[in-house]
Design brief:
The chain has five helices and two strands; from the N terminus they run E-H-H-H-H-H-E. The two termini are about 20 Å apart. The chain has a single domain, classed as Orthogonal Bundle (434 Repressor (Amino-terminal Domain)). By secondary structure, it is mainly α. The chain has a two-stranded antiparallel ribbon. It is about 55% helix and about 5% strand. Helix 2 packs across helix 3.
Length: about 70
């Protein structure tokens, strides 16, 4: 999954710690999401989008390799 979290966070002048506090996770979790080491749950994705005043689709998108071919 690709994400634009770091870009949106910077545009909103919010630190990793500030975002983490706002959504109830650790700073390390935000860092792991930004670097692609962790994929957030739907609920966490929605919380992050709400704090950053955007849509989930603007933050996260599937890559072609994320789809299984039948």
């Amino acid at each position: 999954m690709k994400n634009n979290l770091k870009v949106w966070r910077a545009q909103n002048n919010i630190t990793q710690q500030g975002l983490a506090d706002a959504v109830g996770v650790s700073r390390q979790s935000i860092n792991a999401i930004e670097t692609g080491r962790y994929e957030p749950s739907t609920a966490l994705s929605l919380k992050i989008a709400q704090v950053l005043k955007t849509r989930v689709e603007n933050l996260f998108s599937l890559e072609d390799t994320d789809w299984e071919k039948n």
